[in-house]
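Section 5: illustrative case.
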């Protein structure tokens, strides 16, 4: 301890005498010394220091005395320059205190804080290390809080020292690795930071204390290694980013651009271009494609700008000869133009990767190749589309691919290839009968355009081959076994027979449609009208009768109206009893809401060819019939 004066030197007046007697009688009583120090409050620092020294000589293990003494001594040097001798004297006092108070973390913290104010880095670090050695591990967290704060906020600490301190701390608190990572980024130790973050991501038990998800940490790692590739030596960047591509599918575009940026910063431009090409040919969303496309075009544009500037400098130095020697710029510009021209095709590829069964996108791709005048690619695209599209999963109408393929060959004068395509199409799998029927119809129309009328009819005969006996074919059977039920196919067949066939063949087609019950009211009317044109009136009336037997109201109403009208015009009053039977038959079947027209036609028949009394009775029946709207009764 420092030498002290005698008690007589301390006594400034007789008022101190009671306190002196008290401490002399009870030198080991802490309260006596504290009362004396309280009494001396406001006296000179020298007198208080002497009194503290006397008290600590008797009670060297008193925390209260040491804490109060140190606090006063620290306060005395505040405001003085750091090199003042008073600072070193206070440092020695702290060291004396720690001889007895080395288990008190508060004393260590006060000492370290005082050293930090003096900006003595080595001494501060050594003192913090001594504190960690002296205190039990349960109290280390208090020291580490001060230690790490000092490391983060103090300039001039060698990075290698800070890193070693952090590594020691992580052995105690490994979950605080994110703070270490942030510090490494701050001091520019990017390789160590990447390695730390990579280890954290590989640790399945790691839980972020900053509420960061592994997704966010992955993106942070990718940003780090792509932004500072020249510093990354411990990790293989390419596999890391590619691993993220499979794990985080919602950030594919960003990860691809990070990988390309990594190679760009290393000046590996061809490798970066390969990465961009691979990216735009593998992404499956328009958002990712747009993100990569913008980065790719920006990269190419910057390369061209840099090359142009370099070339202009050469021209200034060497003249026009430099332009003749350097052809790289033209190649770069050609590559860039080619990239821009490919954009619609690349975007189409993205949509097809997203859904390879999208028929509309396949048609769009064919159109793009046609505009680019690449017939070989058109054929390859059609072929690939037909091999890829599953009719059961298709978005759109897959039969249109077959038809468009055949039409493409036809337009280029290769009709035989078109026929081959249609023949294959008729055997292909389809989702519905209508799709296969459309293929057969297109096949027949192809022959019509080639003036092969007999061949067109033969195609439709092949398509409409039906079983001799009416059997129910399950929906699970291929559509080829059920296509004969297609009204569309039979309608075209009937139209061609009317135009190209004989009366017998045409009539056979219509009769077969009625037997198969695949006829519509309009076709019945067309059939009957055709028979009337050929003066087969009884056959026409039979066609009406068959149609009436096949349909119910309201579909059959038009057939009845035309049938009755044609019958009356044909026979007039010659077969009035048969006409009356027909009207009575239709009035029994027709709903009240649609019966008005038949009552009026019946009344007109009686008025013109029968009896006026009958005509009035029919109108009266109509007015008294139940269900007929009031407005129809008074019409």
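Designed sequence:
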């Amino acid at each position: 301890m420092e030498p002290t004066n005698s008690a007589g030197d301390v006594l400034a007046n007789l008022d101190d005498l009671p306190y002196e007697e008290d401490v002399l009688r009870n030198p080991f009583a802490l309260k006596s010394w504290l009362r004396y120090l309280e009494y001396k409050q406001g006296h000179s620092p020298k007198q208080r220091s002497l009194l503290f020294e006397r008290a600590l000589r008797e009670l060297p293990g008193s925390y209260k005395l040491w804490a109060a003494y140190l606090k006063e001594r620290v306060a005395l040097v505040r405001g003085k320059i750091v090199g003042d001798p008073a600072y070193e004297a206070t440092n020695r006092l702290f060291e004396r205190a720690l001889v007895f108070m080395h288990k008190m973390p508060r004393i260590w913290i006060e000492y370290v804080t005082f050293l930090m104010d003096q900006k003595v880095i080595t001494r501060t670090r050594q003192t913090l290390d001594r504190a960690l050695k002296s205190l039990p591990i349960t109290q280390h967290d208090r020291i580490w809080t001060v230690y790490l704060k000092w490391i983060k906020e103090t300039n001039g600490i060698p990075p290698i020292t800070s890193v070693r301190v952090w590594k020691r701390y992580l052995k105690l608190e490994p979950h605080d690795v994110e703070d270490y990572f942030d510090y490494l980024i701050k001091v520019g130790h990017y390789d160590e930071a990447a390695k730390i973050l990579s280890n954290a991501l590989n640790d399945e038990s790691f839980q972020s204390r900053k509420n960061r998800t592994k997704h966010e940490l992955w993106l942070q790692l990718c940003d780090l290694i792509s932004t500072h590739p020249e510093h990354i030596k411990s990790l293989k960047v390419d596999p890391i980013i590619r691993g993220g591509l499979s794990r985080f599918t919602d950030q594919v575009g960003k990860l691809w651009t990070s990988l390309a940026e990594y190679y760009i910063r290393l000046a590996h431009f061809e490798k970066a271009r390969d990465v961009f090409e691979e990216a735009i040919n593998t992404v499956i969303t328009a958002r990712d494609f747009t993100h990569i496309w913008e980065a790719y075009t920006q990269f190419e544009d910057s390369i061209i700008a840099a090359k142009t500037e370099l070339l202009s400098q050469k021209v200034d130095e060497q003249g026009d000869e430099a332009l003749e020697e350097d052809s790289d710029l033209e190649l770069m510009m050609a590559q860039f133009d080619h990239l821009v021209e490919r954009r619609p095709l690349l975007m189409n590829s993205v949509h097809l990767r997203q859904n390879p069964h999208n028929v509309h996108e396949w048609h769009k791709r064919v159109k793009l190749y046609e505009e680019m005048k690449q017939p070989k690619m058109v054929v390859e695209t059609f072929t690939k589309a037909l091999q890829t599209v599953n009719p059961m999963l298709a978005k759109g109408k897959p039969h249109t691919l077959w038809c468009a393929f055949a039409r493409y060959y036809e337009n280029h004068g290769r009709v035989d290839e078109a026929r081959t395509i249609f023949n294959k199409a008729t055997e292909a799998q389809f989702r519905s009968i209508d799709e296969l029927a459309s293929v057969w119809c297109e096949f027949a129309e192809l022959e019509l355009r080639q003036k092969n009328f007999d061949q067109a009819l033969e195609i439709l005969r092949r398509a409409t081959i039906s079983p001799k006996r009416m059997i129910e074919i399950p929906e699970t059977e291929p559509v080829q076994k059920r296509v004969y039920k297609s009204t569309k196919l039979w309608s075209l067949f009937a139209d061609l027979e009317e135009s190209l066939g004989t009366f017998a063949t045409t009539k056979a087609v219509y009769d077969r449609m009625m037997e198969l019950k695949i006829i519509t009211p309009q076709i019945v009317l067309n059939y009957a009208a055709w028979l009337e044109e050929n003066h087969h009136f009884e056959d026409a009336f039979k066609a009406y009768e068959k149609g009436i037997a096949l349909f119910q109201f309201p579909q059959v109403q038009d057939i009845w109206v035309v049938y009755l009208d044609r019958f009356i015009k044909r026979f007039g009053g010659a077969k009035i009893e048969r006409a009356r039977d027909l009207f009575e038959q239709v009035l029994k079947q027709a709903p009240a809401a649609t019966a008005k027209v038949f009552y009026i036609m019946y009344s007109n028949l009686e008025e013109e060819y029968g009896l006026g009394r009958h005509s009035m009775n029919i109108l009266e029946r109509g007015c008294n019939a139940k269900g007929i709207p009031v407005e129809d009764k008074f019409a």
